[in-house]
Amino acid sequence: VQLQASGGGFVQPGGSLRLSCVADGLQHYDYYAIAWYRQAPGKEREVVSCINNADATHYIDSVKGRFTISRVNARNTVYLQMNSLKTDDTAVYYCAADRAGGSYCPFIPYEHWGQGTQVTVSS
Fold first, then answer.
1. Staple partner for 117: which of 5, 27, 55, 98, CB 3.0–4.6 Å?
2. DSSP string of 72-112?
3. Hey, is 40 helix, strand or coil?
4. Per-residue pLDDT tens digits for 35-80
């Protein structure tokens, strides 16, 4: 199983990025819940957003109204559209997947993890 996260980069405050997480080797991808986590230097990893197999979504308060998670099961891909980026959004972003797809997604102990993509928001 491989999760490939991409789309990170350097952007000025107020800018946008779209992260992608492509899964390879997951059978019945539509069963899975997918999450985006992030970890900033000196801080604990936190779940930013997640989507379960019924397309129920969750966002942490600090990104509500700015980030949108979506999935395209036919492409084994989940996206995280990030708008109005702030310096506090700077972190390494990781995607994760778990077959307990119908659960409340921020509470799932995700089994499969990608390698991370760096997002830097700075002027």
1. 5
2. EGGGTEEEEEE-S--GGG-EEEEEEEES-TTS-GGG----E
3. coil
4. 999 999 999 999 999 999 999 999 999 999 999 999 999 999 999 9
